[in-house]
Design goal:
single chain, Nuclear Transport Factor 2, Chain: A, four-stranded antiparallel sheet
Length: 382
């Protein structure tokens, strides 16, 4: 949990500093620079599974114990490098989230995401909850598939004689089928959760006649909640999972506890096995999936954004009826009035911006008019 502190501080500093140097272009450049290390990250990610499989092959082929000890050391390094590589992926998601939010705000036409509004704050909390539930569903899926695999292996030991002696051949394809089917079926619910929540947040309030701009802010709050919570959960799960996996391997090699050397089969080792059982889906399933959850949520929001805003180039010209500028100069006083009239869904509204400059000092007054007041204002201005 503490490992989230330096990582998030670094993310925040990178976002802020890159924006200070070159705005959204700077943030995009920072994200691109992180992704430029993709080749190295792929090599790092591949190291762990290769070392792990090498250890399994060494054990099944009854190699000398020293071979397994060496592969365990390599696998420990692989777990650490894999967690580091996954950290790069979530860092890129954190950096690109600002650019995605900028695009979302532009498409919807909102000024920002104001959490002072109750519906927006409610959606922020819901967004923060989604990565937690998503992680739970992913780990439950791993648990169900693992138990099915255990039952299948037990069945084969009972029904196929000579497996342990090497005279009988196990049905490997049955275990592969369980794994592949579970990886598809069990992830349907988390997938629906990811896609369904933004759609529900958008279209259900529409049915009750809620304003599109308010819905856009609500969806933006949801996206912000998913992003912040998802980044924290990804860091925690990647690092915790790698640590628990390495803890088990440390006990297999021997660990000194209170002056006594503990080895495989001890109570401490049994506890470490439990930690590793949770740690594997942490670092290999739910942790890396946070990156996909964040990016997919933001992309769905961008797809929905034009529906909420409807602010393309043509609609802007169609909605904008008139812009008037009036200047009068008298007694060192300059008054400038801008009137922006919009007609949306048959309803007119106007924003009147009056700037008064007296002896070089400016005062700005903004008024909003609706309905008949707009018609009267336009008539008087013309």
């Amino acid at each position: 949990m503490i490992s989230t502190f330096p990582t998030v501080i670094l993310f925040a500093a990178a976002i802020w500093s890159s924006y200070a140097f070159a705005g959204f272009y700077g943030v995009a450049m920072a994200a691109s620079a992180m992704m430029a290390t993709t080749a190295m990250q792929l090599a790092i990610d591949a190291f762990g599974p290769i070392a792990d499989n090498a250890g399994g092959i060494a054990e099944m082929s009854e190699q000398d114990p020293i071979v397994r000890e060496r592969t365990d050391i390599l696998d420990t390094v692989g777990n650490t490098t894999a967690a580091t590589g996954k950290g790069f992926a979530i860092a890129s998601a954190a950096l690109t989230s600002l650019a995605l939010f900028a695009a979302y705000v532009t498409f919807t036409g909102i000024d920002g995401i104001n959490i002072f509004k109750a519906p927006v704050l409610a959606m922020l909390f819901i967004g923060g909850m989604v990565p937690v539930v998503f992680s739970a569903l992913a780990m439950n899926a791993v648990g169900k598939a693992a138990m099915e695999m255990v039952y299948e292996v037990r069945r084969q030991f009972k029904e196929i004689p000579g497996i342990m002696e090497g005279t009988g051949k196990p049905e490997y394809d049955k275990c592969v089928k369980i794994s592949t089917e579970a990886s598809l079926k069990e992830m349907m619910l988390p997938g629906l959760l990811t896609i369904g929540f933004p759609l529900v947040i958008t279209f259900v309030p529409m049915l009750f006649g809620m304003d599109n701009l308010m819905i856009a802010e609500m969806l933006g709050g949801y996206m912000a909640g998913v992003t912040v919570s998802g980044v924290l959960w990804a860091i925690f799960q990647n690092n915790a999972g790698g640590a628990w996996d390495n803890a088990k391997k440390s006990f297999e090699a021997g660990v000194m506890i209170n002056g006594e050397m503990t080895h495989k089969g001890s109570a401490a080792h049994e506890a470490a096995i439990t930690g590793d059982t949770v740690g594997d889906p942490f670092k290999d399933t739910s942790g890396p999936s946070m990156n996909i959850l964040i990016k997919l949520t933001c992309l769905i929001g961008l797809v929905i954004a034009p529906i909420l805003g409807g602010h393309d180039a043509d609609s802007n010209h169609a909605d904008m009826n008139t812009v008037e500028v009036t200047e009068t100069v008298a007694n060192n006083t300059t008054t400038e009035m801008k009137v922006l009239v919009k007609n949306k869904n048959g309803e007119k509204n106007a924003t009147v911006i009056t700037t008064t400059e007296v002896n070089g000092k400016k005062e700005v007054k903004v008024e909003t008019l609706e309905g008949s007041e707009v018609d009267l204002l336009v008539a008087n201005r013309h």
